[in-house]
Design a protein that fits this description.
The protein is an all-alpha fold and 136 residues long. It has 6 helices and no strands. It has one domain. The longest helix is centred in the middle third of the chain and has 22 residues. The radius of gyration is 16 Å and the shape is globular.
Length: 136
């Protein structure tokens, strides 16, 4: 693990901890046992969204655009689960939130511990004030 990866690891694992904590406090552990497909699917879709944000997967399209599109698909799938499953909205939401936290955690362990954090993410984190336009 490189020293420049540590800040990204801390930030993303903190976000994942918030998602996991909130999901588990809301009944995520029972929800994952009730509707495991929700947690697994959302974990995979969130990991794909983060991957799209950090890699130039779709040439000619900004990674953020591909990531937003993948996130919207994730939301649509989540709504589909709420409509299609007999479980309550609260149970499906807790499973989705817990799965999202797991997806971020697993992705960041792969691209941060096993493999280096992609250069695109490091560039975005290096100088965040450069991405904000100066007011006239």
């Amino acid at each position: 693990m490189r020293s420049e990866d540590i800040a990204v690891l801390k930030a993303d694992l903190f976000l994942a901890a918030i998602m996991l904590g909130t999901g588990l406090v809301s009944g995520g552990s029972e929800a994952l046992l009730t509707v495991p497909a929700v947690g697994v699917t959302v974990a995979a879709l969130i990991a794909i969204s983060v991957y799209l944000a950090e890699h130039d997967v779709v040439p000619g399209v900004y990674p953020e655009v591909a990531s937003v599109a993948a996130f919207l698909v994730t939301v649509a799938v989540g709504v589909g689960f709420v409509v299609a499953l007999s479980a309550t909205t609260a149970v499906v939401s807790a499973a989705a939130l817990t799965g999202g936290g797991l997806g971020v955690t697993l992705y960041r362990l792969i691209y941060g511990v096993v493999l280096p954090v992609p250069a695109y993410r490091l560039e975005k984190d290096a100088e965040p004030e450069e991405t904000v336009e100066a007011e006239p």
